[in-house]
Design brief:
- The chain has 398 residues and is an all-alpha fold.
- It has two domains: 187 residues, no CATH class; 186 residues, no CATH class.
- It is 83% helix and 0% strand.
- It contains 16 helices and no strands.
- The longest helix has 32 residues.
- It is globular.
- The protein starts with a helix and ends with a helix.
């Protein structure tokens, strides 16, 4: 509800052209920002799920690693925007506000959220992650009501302030405080080696959900890019229950994945059954109510219903890809997840370039659907291979 409200307010106050630009640059920042922790938030999740006493040892290097990587990625983000996305016409101040938020502040926010999740506090973790989104909704509402001359700049400031406030609240309300600054240290080689797989999967996992908006801003006319970005955000918000289900299952999969193969197999079968059923029903519902989105977004977004019709092809693939990636992660196969999602990013980029040249605006949802289904099928095959390996079969027979 929070994401949907923010999407509607921001899309209506910016219009398709500016919204397409905003979606493109923010998607790039989000995608790069997933690499800021260098995977240490997932190391924290895994270690604390198994041994809560490991919390402080991981945080000692996770926090400075996030700050250092985030600063480097902010520089990369600004360079890419200024060199390759100049045509979208976004000011440097807005780029800085969004870049700092997504490459430094939000990655730091991932650490307390992962800690709560590791302790099995699923609802608290999700409420914490919803906090910056709720504050952004409030910022969007204020900008929408005030109608400032430069709505994008005003929302950029609110975007930044919302995340700063949320991070402060998250740190202040942790059951145990973060380690003192003078105790922070650089990660050791073996710690970096442990985190690098998670770092790679962080960017490949989020890449398919964000890269398409950046490609759309580059490959499509501004208004068409705005229609695509709005439609893609709609289906992304609608598939959030699958992500919630996987977050709820992750601590159990981490604990039981290696030692209790029968229970794990049952859980995996249940996950994929629910995922396929939900995503199929969701695609049908979105197809049927697509014309309603013109009323929600306003007359400037005429044509969004056709974009959503095409995007419905990607919905089951997107949900299955999400489930497969998280299962592989919990089973101790992070590089398998990196491999199939990296292949999906390549398919998405290549398909977007080719299909937008032949089919214009419809080419982007077709490219997304192609990439999502390639990733979903590959991920499921990798899970089946891992489950049917000789070692695993011997364990299950025993």
């Amino acid at each position: 509800m929070v994401q949907a409200g923010t999407l509607l307010l921001v899309a209506r106050m910016l219009g398709p052209k500016e919204f397409g630009a905003f979606a493109g640059i923010s998607a790039l920042a989000v995608m790069l920002g997933t690499l800021s922790t260098f995977g240490t938030h997932l190391v924290l999740l895994g270690e604390v799920s198994k041994a809560p006493a490991r919390r402080t040892q991981v945080l000692l290097y996770a926090i400075p690693t996030t700050l250092l990587c985030g600063t480097a990625l902010l520089a990369i983000y600004l360079a890419v925007c200024l060199l390759m996305l100049r045509a979208v016409g976004v000011s440097l101040v807005v780029l800085l506000a969004i870049g700092i938020t997504e490459t430094i502040i939000q990655p730091l926010f991932a650490l307390p959220a992962a800690e709560h999740l590791a302790f099995g506090r699923i609802a608290r973790s999700q409420l914490l992650q919803t906090l910056p989104l709720a504050l952004r909704l409030a910022a969007a509402a204020v900008v929408f009501l005030l109608h400032p001359p430069d709505a994008l700049a005003a929302y950029g400031y609110g975007y930044f302030v919302a995340s700063v406030i949320a991070l402060g609240i998250a740190i202040a309300t942790m059951p145990a405080p973060w380690p003192k600054v003078h105790l922070w240290r650089f990660a050791r080689i073996y710690e970096l080696r442990e985190a690098v797989g998670y770092a790679a999967l962080a960017i490949t996992a989020n890449g398919p959900a964000e890269l398409d908006k950046t490609l759309a801003a580059r490959l499509l006319p501004p208004s068409t890019a705005g229609l695509y970005a709005a439609g893609a955000r709609v289906i992304g918000a609608a598939t959030l229950p699958i992500i919630a289900m996987m977050l709820s299952a992750l601590p159990r999969l981490f604990r039981e994945g290696q030692d209790q193969p029968r229970r794990t197999a049952h859980l995996i079968h249940l996950i994929f059954t629910v995922t396929l059923a939900y995503s199929t029903i969701l695609a049908i519902v979105l197809w049927l109510i697509a014309p309603w989105f013109v009323t929600l977004f306003g007359p400037e977004y005429e044509g969004i219903q056709h974009m959503i019709h095409w995007l419905c092809l990607a919905v089951p693939g997107m949900a299955l890809r999400t489930a497969a990636g998280n299962v592989l992660l919990a089973l101790g196969k992070p590089w398998a997840r990196v491999g199939f999602e990296a292949a999906g990013l390549f398919v998405l980029t290549a398909a977007a370039i080719v299909l937008t040249a032949y089919f214009d605006g419809e080419g982007m949802p077709l490219a997304l659907a192609s990439a999502e289904w390639v990733m979903a099928i590959t991920g499921i095959l990798l899970i089946a291979h891992a489950r049917l390996s000789p070692g695993r079969l011997n364990e299950e027979r025993a």
